Amino acid sequence: MLRREKSIKVRGSGGCPSDTGQLSREKSIKVRAMRLLQGSSPPAGVWFNVEIDALPMVTDRARRVPALLAEIRRNLDELGALKREGIFRISPDHSVYTFVRGRLEAGEDIGLLAGCPPDVLAGLLKEWFRERPDGWLRRKDAEGGKQGKHAKGSNSGVSIEELEAAMISAQRVPTSVLKQALGPAQRESFLWLLDLLVETASFEAYSRMGVTAIALIFAPVLFPPSTSRPPAEQLCQLRNSTTLCERLILFHKDQVAGASRPPLLRRSSSSKRKLLELSSASTGSTLPVHGEEERTPHTPKAHGVGD
């Protein structure tokens, strides 16, 4: 029995195959795309499930990240996708997503992402972060206090629980902890994502995706629960991971805002006096200096004969 193959259309010119032609080319791509659907652990490819150090890197917004992430971000910006309602929450069309990803993993140029729907771009970004080999941070084994396997590219065995404790105690982004937990390339990509999530949250009025909503989506992406634990414990881990993700976004937002805020200029009282004198000279009035009472010339009171 012959099986009819459905043609998949993607808006725009970059990732849109035509209804006719390219059958032999699409056959190998679709076979690879179907393999992505089999099993929970996808095979290593060209871009996904590959160590960051092995990927071509570019500079995007002052951070060195894989070229695929920069291309996804560029297309999201061109589409104004961060203002789209439900961005990162709405799942993409599965057939379109697997087709585009299959072409990427077959080694085609990342320029094919031009014209892809926003949800496909968002889905590719989430899956890239989800499928980093060995994850981003490990978890401590609940039994026996043993620690899980260290993630590749990490400088030391910092766990998710230790990062949570550092954030609660420091009440700020624990940059020193992240430096211990991740290598330079991994840390740059992680901070690049936080930059993106902070910007996404700034458009909450349009997208209805505030910090809490974004944390609910990215917590299982960055800090998935341990599948070897009982369901109740997995749920607890997911809840804690969501809180951790929300704190990371908020603290990173404060850090970015603090870096862009101009430093306060402290002036001495003599400097204040000079500034006020210049201001009063331009307006023709005399202003009192803060902390001093306005003085008026004292005229002696005339005394009468009987005083």
Main beta-sheet strand count, sense and barrel state: 2 strands, antiparallel
Number of helices: 11
Integer count of domains: 1
Q: CATH H-level name... which superfamily?
A: Rho GTPase activation protein
Which range does the strand content fall in? under 5%
H-E order? HEEHHHHHHHHHH
Keywords:
307 residues, mainly alpha, Phosphatidylinositol 3-kinase, Chain A, two-stranded antiparallel sheet, 48% helix, 3% strand, globular, disordered N terminus
Please specify the SSE layout and strand pairing:
Elements: H1 23-36, E1 57-60, E2 63-66, H2 67-78, H3 94-105, H4 118-130, H5 160-170, H6 175-181, H7 184-201, H8 204-207, H9 211-222, H10 231-260, H11 269-283
Antiparallel strand pairs: 1-2
Descriptive notes:
By secondary structure, the protein is mainly α. The chain has one domain (23-259): Rho GTPase activation protein (Phosphatidylinositol 3-kinase, Chain A, Orthogonal Bundle). Helices cover 48% and strands 3% of the residues. It has helices at 23-36, 67-78, 94-105, 118-130, 160-170, 175-181, 184-201, 204-207, 211-222, 231-260, 269-283; strands spanning 57-60, 63-66. It has a two-stranded antiparallel ribbon with strand order 1-2. Strand 1 and strand 2 (63-66) form a beta hairpin. Helix 2 packs antiparallel against helix 4. The termini are far apart.
Explain briefly what this protein structure is.
With 307 residues, this protein is mainly α.
